[in-house]
Sequence to fold (123 residues):
Amino acid sequence: MRHPGVAIAAVVVLAAAHASAQQPQLNDSQKLGQTLFVQSCGVCHLKPQLNAPQFAPTLSRDSASGNENAMRQVIANGTPRMPGFKYTFNESQIAAIASYLKTVAPQAAPAATATKREGRDAD
Fold:
């Protein structure tokens, strides 16, 4: 090992390049949607830190069966368990949130991941 620092730096650069390649490039509308989502929807729909409860499902491009128009309707009008945002956001802001959600990859359910891990450990 002549230069362990160089090897570590190379790994960090490659990992960063790989991570940025997986992140979709957001257009201006999607960036606005991301900001609005984090500020207004994230309290319920983003995974909390430190084992706090999550109040609503994690959203992704597969939410509302992947139908962007249906996403807009739910965001605007709400559901029995979620308030509507048609009086908070205008139509273009609601469309921006739905457009952003279409860029979010679905996440594995935490319970399914734990079950798979337990199954491997038991073998």
Notes: The longest helix spans residues 4-22. Residues 15 and 21 are 10 Å apart (CA to CA).
